[in-house]
Amino acid sequence: MGKHNVVELLGRETSRDELTELIRDGARKLIGEALEAEVGELLSSLCGRRDASGRAAVVRNGYQPERDIQTGIGPVTVKVPKVRSRNGEPVSFRSALVPPYVRKTASLEAALPWLYLKGISTGEMAPALEVLVGSEAKGLSASTVSRLKQQWREDYEGWCHRRLDKDRWVYIWADGIYSGLRAERQRLCALVVVGVNERGDKHFLAIEDGIRESTQSWREVLLDLQSRGLNPPELAVGDGALGFWAALEEVFPATRQQRCWMHKTGNVLNALPKSVQPKAKSALHDIWQAATREDAERAFDRFIVTYEPKYPKATVCLVKDRDTLMTFYDFPAVHWQHLRTTNPIESTFATIRHRTTRTKGCVTRDSLLHMMFKLGQCAEKNWRKLRGFAYLAKVVEGVEFINGEEIEQPDQVAA
Known about the structure:
Elements: H1 18-45, E1 58-63, E2 67-71, E3 74-78, E4 81-85, H2 108-117, H3 125-133, H4 142-160, E5 169-183, E6 186-197, E7 202-210, H5 215-227, E8 235-238, H6 242-251, E9 256-259, H7 261-270, H8 277-288, H9 293-307, H10 312-319, H11 322-325, H12 336-339, H13 343-348, H14 350-353, H15 365-380, H16 392-397, E10 401-402, E11 405-406, H17 410-414
Parallel strand pairs: 5-8, 8-9
Antiparallel strand pairs: 1-4, 2-3, 5-6, 6-7, 10-11
């Protein structure tokens, strides 16, 4: 890798975790897409050949049998395309990426960070793939790499225009994800929205480039979602970024608001000395882990009385969002663990926020955005249904909940 830019991947001591599975799935897709780009390049170069009927003389002919390539994080299954000639001329497809009989790669574990965070955004894809499968990858042409990157761009653009009105979206989570990598002299801030439909299925609704989570940027994201059929959600969960909430009140004024307790806890603790933080953190947990709103309010008041005299900045930070920190108590208790934080977004993009340490040089904002989209697609396939999804229909119907418990209506009691 010598002269090339490398992004380090930390935590490699674990060999079978969600990140490893995500990387393995990403490697399989990456190799598959590269193989399709290679065979597409071959067919394009032979498009001038015609048979007696004027048809293309060389065409696709299925795939070779699947085989596993052993990597640093386990086997990755590949299917190499085949071609055939209609006029009997000898022709075959020999992949530069996965030559015949290759069964083992160089260390994929070391290569993948660069593949994701550098390779998809520059003309250096070929040396990235060389690390993945060995020196045979040198045969990849610039046009093959360009074709591959164009496909990712088209996938993202198509995804951004899909309709959303086939589902009833009940909850959404929103967050601004800073990549940690610099693109065009600024860190990329991706505005991310995840939604859960009435069946409990979670999906990414938006992964858009933003400008420091401004109100205008969030307004554009929400208006686009609305134009594609997103109904007003029952509840939105996010951090304290004023841009999102101001935009939400404009576009979906009926949607209720829940501030993220994870972000709020971090902000409050940052205003306290380190020696005080462990005890203060426990006191904050007593608030949002309380069984009822009344118990939470009492714990909230205790925190203010305890810390306001010496640390007024910390208590001001907490008090300003008091009402919206407690909204989850008006929803089914089985949903609370999902509604108190933006964890569905945070955990998915931990690969970017916490596993990358440094990069040299610049990559384009679009390329970083496409990389986030690819990671998000891989992660989404492993998501489980929302716990207690059967209650979502009641939330949509407007059933009232107090302290997480359904309130029986008079006609129900009479029955």
